[in-house]
Structures are given as structure tokens and as C-alpha cells.
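Q: what sequence does this backbone want?
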């Protein structure tokens, strides 16, 4: 765990220290649609939530950029338990570090690793189940975005498949999977 955390911090520090043309700080927010995939075939329904955070858009040159983010993300799933639907609310602080290919017209393609830190896990009735889940979740971020260059306002869509098992006490491998649709604003966008 310390190794992975050290790697994420090293990438963020390196990205911040590159000889970049310019760096834009920004904010972002949007809608999540998350679910949990289980390798034993048990299926859950998707749960909607929100994400909110900060970003740093670091231009490496005219077409490449690195974008580290710090994002609160409401995730989880819905399932049937004792003949009633309940929600599993998993709240994370996610740190994606995305490599972006930027087109001249404002469109961007992006991909990169993401590490999530579990801050709470509760059922719909408020029962704390955080001990049932691992504190760190590793995944990927894959997506596209568009920014209107003259305003710094943009939208992005992202698919975040988890690659690490989030179950702490079970032999079943479970991974987070989710889609995000968001808006962002970059201050002093050039």
C-alpha cells in the first residue's frame, strides 16, 4: 500500500515539476453512475452519485498534457437484501493522473491510472460497513472532453474501471466500475 501511494505522489510531483508551457488550475463537478462487478456472477444495480474536485492541467507541449486531480466521489451500488432494495454508499477521495491528447478545436482524449482512498462505507440505513472494504482502490480513467478555449469552461465523460479487489473479508473479487459526466472550469485558460 505504501509503495502504490508513493508512486502516485511521485507522478503528481513529477508532473508538477516538468518544464511545462503553462499550468491551469481548475474545479470540476458532475454526475456518477457506479456499480460493483463481482467475479461470482452476483449482479448489483447501478447507483447515481456526485463528484466534486480540483484539477491541474499541465501542458507538456501543444498536443500533450498531464492532468492530476483530487476528487470526492460518491460511488457504490444498489441491491436486494431481505426482499427490499438497499444502497451501498462508498465514498472515495480519488486521485486520477491522466495523460491527455489535445486537438486544436478543444477536444481531448484522456487515459491514466487512478487511486481511490475510501473515506466511508455505509448501507442505506446508515450501518457502517467500512471494515468490509479495502482502504485503497486502484483503477483506470478513460475518457474524452471538450473545453471552449475562450472561456475555460468544459465538459468531460469518463469510464473508470477498477482493477483491484475492494473486498476485505471475502474470497469474491469485487471491483468498482463507473461512468462520470462532468463539467469543469480552468482558471486563466490559455
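A:
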Amino acid at each position: 500500500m505504501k509503495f502504490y501511494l508513493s508512486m502516485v505522489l511521485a507522478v503528481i510531483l513529477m508532473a508538477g515539476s516538468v518544464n511545462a508551457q503553462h499550468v491551469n488550475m481548475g474545479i470540476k463537478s458532475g454526475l456518477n453512475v457506479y456499480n460493483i462487478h463481482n467475479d461470482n456472477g452476483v449482479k448489483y444495480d447501478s447507483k447515481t452519485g456526485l463528484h466534486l474536485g480540483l484539477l491541474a492541467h499541465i501542458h507538456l507541449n501543444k498536443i500533450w498534457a498531464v492532468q492530476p486531480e483530487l476528487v470526492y466521489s460518491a460511488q457504490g451500488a444498489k441491491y436486494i437484501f431481505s426482499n427490499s432494495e438497499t444502497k451501498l454508499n462508498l465514498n472515495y477521495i480519488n486521485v486520477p493522473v491522466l495523460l491527455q491528447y489535445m486537438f486544436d478545436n478543444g477536444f481531448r482524449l484522456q487515459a491514466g491510472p487512478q487511486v481511490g482512498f475510501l473515506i466511508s462505507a455505509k448501507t442505506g440505513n446508515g450501518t457502517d460497513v467500512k471494515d468490509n472494504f479495502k482502504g485503497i482502490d486502484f483503477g483506470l480513467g478513460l475518457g474524452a472532453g471538450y473545453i471552449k478555449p475562450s472561456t475555460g469552461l468544459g465538459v468531460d465523460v469518463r469510464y473508470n474501471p477498477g482493477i483491484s479487489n475492494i473486498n476485505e473479508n471475502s474470497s469474491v473479487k469485487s471491483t468498482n466500475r463507473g461512468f462520470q459526466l462532468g463539467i469543469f472550469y480552468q482558471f486563466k485558460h490559455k
